[in-house]
Amino acid sequence: MEQLIVGSFLSLFTLEFLVEFTLNELNLRHVRGRIPAQNIPDIFRAKIQSADYDKSVQYTLAKGRFQRWADLYGRAVLLVILFSGLLPWLDTLSTTLLSRFFPVAHAQGIIFCLAVGAVFFIIGLPADLYATFRLEARFGFNKTTVKLYVADKFKGLMLGVVFGVPLLYVVLWLMEATGRYWWIGAFVFICGFELLMIVIYPTFIAPLFNKFEPLKDGNLRDRILKLAEQVGFHAIGIYSMDGSRRSAHSNAYFTGIGKAKRIVLFDTLIEQMTIEQGVAVLAHEMGHYKMKHIRRMLVVQTVFLFVGLFILSLLVEYRPLFSAFGLQPTSHAVLVLFSLLSGPFTFYLAPLMNLLSRKHEYEADRFAAVTLRDGRPMEEALVNLTVKNLSNLTPHPWYSFYHYSHPTPVERIEAIRRISV
């Protein structure tokens, strides 16, 4: 049975790798094939300069080449961690640390889970450093200093400990103290924990990384407030975020729920867009809220959590799973194995989620165009964002179907032009 488990994992692991690798290579070939003739889509032909198009192509190719090697590296790391004996060694180390320094309930499980997370964090640093300080910097996007990068990582680790340890403690306690239906209690607790994080993130966590200032009085603020009143979007405030400290990419979003809702605009977006374009982007984001897209995605994720915890409950006492990877059957071991092995068994769900996400994006674009009674500001905003962010104008259709959570810029603009307002 252990051989069947390992064989099933390796078969799906290989299938996932082949799908990802093939799609990436198809996309690279597709983009390269359009270079000689500068085959710019008609929608962008009069709106993007030749130099900007060439730069977007080179950015796309550079990211694709990096993705190729980063994926190989990441998959090799996962195989080493699973089959090198590292997991049993970490489990033994956590037992030793427990007996010497942490003689409290569930400390071994928490130490083991944190140790595995630390291994992935350390091993993932080279790829992250290269992407930040070489790839993004090469194309003028990275604004992060080494000091800021280290500070961000340190804060992230501390938050992981502050919130992760209590979460692990409660889940491990439920697994061992509440019988075979522990997963129902864990489901309720995790759902409550996630809702709490949604509420406290805008006020307490996000400001640890970025500076948020109320949007200054002026035409843009007045237009946004008028739009919010028009569509019935009630937020606690409108803020500008110093995204330019880390990146030249621009964006806007709203976050939080209930009275904690707030509208956030990157300072780069405010600088790069006209007032009409900025209002259109915010109308799009409000469209997600008014059409209940956020709530719908939360429901889908909650269903996935429920099903995942049920499957996990079936594996808790399945000894062949543990022996296949050299571990003893414990609650903390099954949590780690489930997180490491589930990817190849569920990778086909990602394109389905992206399909739903793209549907939401079309609907939010339509909402913006209809609400403003003019689709041109949304179209111009998309062109602006596409050009400034060096987005790929011509991805391979299979690649965009599998990977993209948003329709391509060309697809979105074509859909906006078909809207009668």
Describe this structure in words.
With 421 residues, the protein is mainly alpha-helical. It has a domain of 247 residues. It contains 17 helices and 4 strands. A 4-stranded mixed β-sheet has the order 1-2-4-3.
Main β-sheet, spatial strand arrangement: 1-2-4-3
Helix content: over 70%
pLDDT average, as an integer? 88
Structural class: mainly alpha
- Beta-strand content estimate: under 5%
Low-confidence runs of at least 5 consecutive residues: none
Shape: globular
Tally of DSSP helical segments: 17
**Element pattern in H and E:** HHHHHHHEHEEEHHHHHHHHH
Largest sheet: 4 strands, mixed
Total number of beta strands:
4
Rg is 24 Å
| N/C terminus separation | 62 Å
How would you summarize the topology of this molecule?
Layout: H1 2-32, H2 42-45, H3 50-83, H4 86-100, H5 107-138, H6 146-177, H7 182-205, E1 212-214, H8 219-231, E2 238-241, E3 252-255, E4 262-266, H9 267-272, H10 275-290, H11 293-315, H12 319-323, H13 331-346, H14 349-372, H15 376-388, H16 397-403, H17 409-417
Parallel strand pairs: 2-4
Antiparallel strand pairs: 1-2, 3-4
Helix pairs in contact: 1-3, 1-13, 1-16, 3-5, 4-5, 5-6, 5-13, 6-7, 7-11, 8-10, 10-14, 10-15, 15-17
What distinguishing features does this structure have?
4-stranded mixed sheet; 421 residues; mainly alpha; 17 helices; single chain
